[in-house]
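Dear colleagues,

As part of the handover before I leave the project, I'm documenting each prediction I ran so the next person doesn't have to rerun anything. This entry is a single chain, and its sequence is reproduced below.
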Amino acid sequence: MESVRKFAEGGGLVLGICNGFQILCESGLLPGALLRNASLKYICKQVGIRVESADTPFTNSCRAGEVLTIPIGHMEGNYFCDNSTLQELQRDHRIVFRYASSQGEITAGANPNGSLDNIAGICSPGRNVLGMMPHPERASEPELGGEDGLKIFASLVGAMASR
């Protein structure tokens, strides 16, 4: 993790998906923790995530408010942080994705795991480290059931190409 930390501190782009998000939190690269799902059950299904911030290297091919359909598959995807951290994430627009209905509504019913404030993904203060629970790699071509995840990878490739 020391190499990953140095890479991120130098501005390198780091994407942690599912367990990768957990590792980024556990290592201190992102705040908070991933707890057991509120249902205490493994969840594997398609979910809607609303893009809250389109000004990251991971979301620049998206529109703020756009809803992507991306699968989840986890037992410990319930994002939690203390109130001051949540306020900081909100203030600095570091909540990148929230679980939402297909119409973009942030509701308890759209939250599959009990995540605080429906959080599905957050970024670092420098916006170069992203942790997210949904799996965009499982929604990146039609044969996998959807292409919404491709927008995240297209954003990332575009950001790297412009460096």
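Residues 150-161 form the longest helix (12 residues). The chain has four helices and eight strands.

All the best with the project,
I.
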